[in-house]
Amino acid sequence: MARTSGSYAKLTKPKISEIALQLFAERGYAAVSMRQIASKVGLQVGALYNYFPDKQTILSELLINHMESLIEAWYAQKLPERPDKLLEFFVDFHIQYHLNRPEEVFIAYMELRNLTPYNFRKIEKLRNKYELILSGILSEGVRKNIFSCDETKIASLAIIGMLKEVHTWYKIDGRIGSSEIKSIYQKIVLKAVT
Question: Using CB atoms within 10 A as the burial measure, which of 80, 81, 87, 132 is most buried?
């Protein structure tokens, strides 16, 4: 198969990532081959290796990019100062960000098991960095006597665990809209720490 007309390096690598993301989300990482990715992109399989040395690299880059984008998006926001308002904002942000990226979120949680130990550690560092944002909010709230939370790290993990599941059951055309879901979750989270 010859190179697809109009294929350029700046466009091809993101296209490979986009196609791999779709295939991993649809079929699972283990069921997708480099040949299938190349075929969907319109490349010979050998040409794919000019962009990614292996499938593991594609997966790890997808997961790293997801976490880095999440953290960058958080810090790009104008954040409230009061810990209770910041916690509500965190809940809103987390749910909205994840509902807008269902494929990324799916593989970010379901395909961790397929990372090499080295790549898993890189993702784990980024996940810990994100968790520290929330535990920092909780710690500040405890310091200011707004929250009552003995173990902010465990509370942070519990809250993130609860929030990450929204994308697994939420339906755009469901009975409750995303704004109401975010409001419900904000109340649940605030009650858990006050």
Answer: 87
Q: Which structure tokens are listed for 89?
A: 């904002």
Chain-centroid distance of CA 66 in Å reads 5
Sequence-ordered list of residues with C-beta below 8 angstroms from that of 93, at least 6 positions apart, any chain: 73, 74, 77
Cα–Cα dist 185/189, whole Å:
6
The region that residue 72 occupies, defined by phi over 0 for left and psi between -120 and 50 for alpha, beta otherwise, is alpha
**pLDDT tens column, 78-134:** 999 999 999 999 999 999 999 999 899 989 988 999 999 999 999 999 999 999 999
Residue at 39: amino acid letter = S
Q: What are the chain's domains? A: 9-53 (1.10.10.60), 56-193 (1.10.357.10)
pTM: 0.88
Over the stretch 4-36, which tens digit does the pLDDT of each residue have?
544 566 789 999 999 999 999 999 999 999 999
